């Protein structure tokens, strides 16, 4: 660790930015963390914007490295499986892991962000500038321009790291300078948050599960909160006859939910109000390249690779970026011009892999989870995991309960499916041969 270092600018004090500030400060860097919003520890929470999130092994691994995992997990609610709510009939539980013990954790996004902010602020060398919206960046000189309530201010940094989310201004500046290309693939679906409050001080649904209402063209999920409420997220097309745009009156909203989500209606007394007043968020995949320019400007988290939320991995993946960047700095003896390209090389394929898995999981969650074929497939998968411990591991386990690089997960799962397919085809051929022989003998 060196003692004399130039200041690093981190733009965005969200989840990735705060974690990054902690890791850099531990390496001895002076860090300026710029955030467009006021200090969230003193401000109001935005209405209807992803209140909680599922934290799994990758995110926890990063938090353990800065000694914050225990504090964050103190309020976490473990979810050991999915609770599938059909239109009629009882909900069915499907455990995530073969032993039924492993869980993803529902945590408050705001509490996690605040814990990370407080941890960063307590480290020597970190200064946090709230109400600083990046509006200009010269990638060659490292000069930054911010809009603040007092007017425009400028600053410089030896290295600038954009952790400013899916709509990253840092990425936008690199685009404007012609040193980066990007593609934005928006889904036709948006999301809206609704609330199931506690009943008599208790959870209205089982808090040990992630609840899913799969409805083919739409889907709703619900995660528990420490105050015993649930935050539901409805995913639905943004336009068309069956879409957020199609419910124009309180009666239409009530009718829709009574038809498609009948067990939710008695649990959500503010359904109509939530529906009418909470915003519809957009969903999409952001890809860009390169993730760094001349070892001077880099992108982490959603700024580099926003993904759709259907695997619950966006923040987990952003945290992994930070761990990898720290590792690259180690391996490159803090030579940024080597470390940033290495970081990009190691992370880009992994981000692409989870982006694809997240898109595929949308179809699985909104459509397949309720089908008997899917349930049988899951039972077979768990049976294989029991029979071949450590050798056959489901994609869900590898993504959520390990830190196996995402790209490796995809390759391994393809190999597993191919092996199972080959065995099944062989067994079918043997069976067909046996049946054929038996039929031949009976002639
Ligand atoms: P953000 O969290 O977006 O932080 C960016 C920060 O930069 C913000 O504080 C912002 O104010 C600031 N900023 C933006 N522009 C500027 C600017 N010009 N100047 C200065 N500051 C700026 N992930 C999971 O792991 N598990 C989940 O269960 C999960 N659920 C999700 C559910 C939904 C509905 C959505 C939409 C996402 C979900 N995600 C989940 C994804 C997760 O929220 C993101 O991947 C994660 O927040 C990315 O962190 P980040 O720090 O890169 O970006």
Automatic annotation (TrEMBL):
Q: What is this protein called?
A: Kynurenine 3-monooxygenase
Q: Which SUPFAM superfamilies match?
A: FAD/NAD(P)-binding domain
The text of the family note is:
Belongs to the aromatic-ring hydroxylase family. KMO subfamily.
**Highest lineage ranks of the organism?**
Bacteria, Bacillati, Actinomycetota, Actinomycetes, Micromonosporales
Q: Which GO terms describe its molecular function?
A: FAD binding; kynurenine 3-monooxygenase activity
Enumerate the InterPro entries for this protein.
Answer: FAD-bd, FAD/NAD-bd_sf, Kynurenine_monooxygenase
- What is the reaction catalyzed? L-kynurenine + NADPH + O2 + H(+) = 3-hydroxy-L-kynurenine + NADP(+) + H2O
Top-level EC class: oxidoreductase
The cofactors it requires, by name, are: FAD
Gene that codes for this?
Answer: kmo
Q: Name any Gene Ontology BP term.
A: quinolinate biosynthetic process
The entry's keywords: FAD, Flavoprotein, Membrane, Monooxygenase, NADP, Oxidoreductase, Pyridine nucleotide biosynthesis, Transmembrane, Transmembrane helix
Enzyme Commission designation:
1.14.13.9
Domain FAD-binding intervals: 7-356
Say what the protein does: Catalyzes the hydroxylation of L-kynurenine (L-Kyn) to form 3-hydroxy-L-kynurenine (L-3OHKyn). Required for synthesis of quinolinic acid.
PROSITE patterns documented for this protein: PROKAR_LIPOPROTEIN (PS51257)
Pathway this chain belongs to: Cofactor biosynthesis; NAD(+) biosynthesis; quinolinate from L-kynurenine: step 1/3
Q: Which domain of life is it from?
A: Bacteria
Q: Provide the transmembrane region boundaries.
A: 417-439
Tell me what organism the protein belongs to: Micromonospora auratinigra
């Amino acid at each position: 660790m060196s003692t004399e270092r130039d200041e690093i600018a981190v733009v965005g004090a969200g989840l990735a930015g705060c974690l990054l500030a902690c890791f850099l400060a531990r390496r001895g860097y002076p860090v300026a963390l710029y955030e467009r919003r006021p200090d969230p520890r003193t401000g109001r929470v935005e209405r209807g914007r992803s209140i909680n999130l599922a934290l799994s092994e990758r995110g926890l691994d990063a938090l353990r490295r800065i000694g914050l995992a225990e504090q964050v997990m103190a309020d976490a609610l473990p979810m050991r499986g999915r609770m599938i709510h059909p239109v009629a009939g009882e909900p069915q539980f499907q455990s995530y892991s073969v032993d039924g013990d492993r869980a993803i954790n529902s945590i408050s996004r705001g509490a996690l962000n605040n814990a990370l902010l407080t941890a960063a602020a307590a480290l020597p060398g970190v200064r946090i500038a709230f109400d600083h919206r990046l509006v200009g960046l010269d990638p060659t000189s490292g000069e930054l321009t911010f809009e603040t309530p007092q007017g425009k201010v400028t600053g410089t940094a030896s290295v600038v790291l954009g952790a400013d989310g899916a709509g990253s201004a840092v990425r936008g500046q690199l685009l404007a300078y012609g040193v980066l290309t990007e593609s934005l693939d928006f889904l036709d679906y948006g999301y809206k948050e609704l609330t199931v409050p506690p009943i008599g001080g208790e959870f209205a649904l089982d808090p040990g599960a992630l609840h899913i209402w799969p409805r083919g063209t739409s889907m709703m999920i619900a995660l528990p909160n420490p105050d015993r409420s649930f935050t539901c997220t409805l995913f639905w097309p943004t336009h068309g006859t069956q879409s957020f745009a199609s419910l124009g009156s309180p009666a239409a909203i009530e009718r829709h939910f009574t038809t498609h989500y009948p067990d939710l209606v008695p649990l959500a007394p503010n359904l109509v109000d939530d529906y009418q007043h909470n915003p519809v968020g957009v969903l999409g995949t952001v890809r860009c390249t390169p993730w760094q320019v001349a070892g001077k400007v880099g992108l982490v988290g959603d700024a580099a690779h926003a993904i759709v939320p259907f695997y619950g991995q966006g923040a987990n993946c952003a945290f992994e970026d930070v761990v990898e960047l720290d590792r690259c700095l180690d391996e490159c003896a803090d030579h940024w011009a080597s470390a940033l390209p290495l970081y990009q090389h190691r992370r880009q394929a992994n981000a692409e892999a989870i982006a694809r898995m997240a898109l595929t999981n949308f179809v699985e969650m909104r459509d397949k989870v309720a089908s008997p074929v899917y349930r049988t497939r899951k039972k077979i998968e768990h049976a294989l995991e029991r029979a071949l411990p450590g050798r056959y591991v489901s994609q869900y386990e590898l993504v959520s309960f390990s830190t196996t690089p995402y790209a490796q997960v995809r390759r391994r799962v393809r190999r597993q499916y191919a092996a199972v397919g080959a065995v099944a085809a062989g067994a079918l051929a043997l069976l067909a041969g046996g049946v054929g022989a038996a039929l031949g003998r009976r002639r």
